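Record type: monomer structure entry
Structure origin: computed from sequence
Chain ID: A
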Amino acid sequence: MSLGKTSGAESRVGWQGGAGLLWAPLLAIGGAAFAVEIPFFFLGTPSGHDVEFHLYSWLEVLAQWKHGIFYPRWAALAHFAYGEPRFVFYPPASWTLGAFLSAIFPWTVASCVYLWIVLVAAGVAMFVLARRWLDPQKLDRRDAIFVAVLYAVNPYHLVIVYWRSAFAELLASCLVPLLLLCVLKAVDAGMRAVVPLALVLAAAWLTNAPAAVMIHYSLALLLVFFAWQRRSLRLLLVGAGAVGLGACLAGFYLLPAIYEQRWIDIAQAVSAGSRPADNFLFIHTTDADHDAFNRIVTWLAVLEMVVIVVAAWAARRWWETQREVWNVLVGWAIACSVLMFPVAGLLWRVLPKMQFMQFPWRWLLCLSLIFSLFVTVGLRRWWWRAAVCAVSILVIVGAWRYAQAPWWDTADDLREMQDNMATAAGYEGTEEYTPLGAEPGAIDKEARNVTVEGPAHGAIRVQRWDAESRMFTAEMSAADQVALRLFRYPAWRVEVNGRVVETTARAETGQMLVPVGAGMNRVEIRFVRTWDRAVGGWISFITAIAVIVWLWMSRVRTSDRPV
């Protein structure tokens, strides 16, 4: 295998010599990413499976930023303004970047800019891996550029762009090359690789939870392979330390996301259609659209597996000099492939958190990296590489033509989303983030923000109705309850005339009911910081400070060493 660590001198010379030519890989990767978006000019913006979830999240976050809420937790207009704690559970990286781009660029092109940036970032991550680990005596700068371009626009990324609109998962693809880079560093550097590896793992948790599960299992697999080949337990200790440190760095997100699952209907994440059993390759269900998409990823997975086998065989001459890494990559490819077939069903049921990856074909995120590497190191002739790219494009075109055409949003469709947010009409929520007891199918979409529940009469005046703070007065003829256009959730703190009160939920809908007395009632509702969020924040803060201090002390010790 041609993956091998270059010496420090070789690395410095390589980078210094290429410093003035960084435009070449960036231009190549950026041009390829732009080519992916050419159909956008004629058809509109891809409207994949997850597009509304992500785009409405961006608009929610942008609106809350304007109200001074830096880190949103409650998606106020989900479930048509009854809300859900979406941002407690969905990692912040993608919706932060999406909201930032939405604030800078016109809304109708924000998602296009996002896709281009992420594809380029994935290519750059692969280029960094290639320049650091590809043997310069056998593979030159052009090969590094090729593998970076191929990875950026690999077939699975095209499926994500055109059919899935899984913006967070696509962003996580930038971390897979960095994971391999850090593991290879750990093989040689030992404990010095703990912090870089922990940063990658923390970034995975903050980007996409299913991808984070996949990356952690990949890490375990890679380290076990290397530890077995080297007969060393040190690598396993490095991995354990990185996993713990990464989890602590991401504690501000992880702890609330784990603890507050008891307050939502998280089991819906693996309901029918989203279960691993419904999404293995070659599987058939009663849903025709589901099966059509499954055929697309099946063809794509088979293509990558076949190419990996051929390219790995063609790269067998590198096996003699880089046997260790070659074996590890082949083992990783076999594991990714097996996990996509029904034969691995037992593993999906018994391995911790595997079921929450939902779709076994998500392992294509890792398999695509191996695919790109083996094509580069195994197929040395450019016409072979061109043939692989051509066949990949034909598979995508064939899927588009014969299996399931992508859906597209026009500029008017995107502006309608903005209108739904501006008018507070809201949008559909997410089943797995729905608070326990809530019934989105039974809600009144035209309900007022506050209504009297019982027979009493009352004059309601709303002073403030923001994402995490609501205030109104209710002058009542008798003691009663008022129903809010808001799902009940434990993080909501309700005060009536300055006194904290216990709320209940309407049985039919799950919306919050607030007890009020006769006469004037001043009601204030705030989304408070629960203990899990406070503790998670402190864990992340203290860990980050400790890492910074450790890095600074390491640098000081290094600079004090005699030359």
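Annotation 1: The mean pLDDT is 91.
Annotation 2: The two ends are 34 Å apart (CA to CA).
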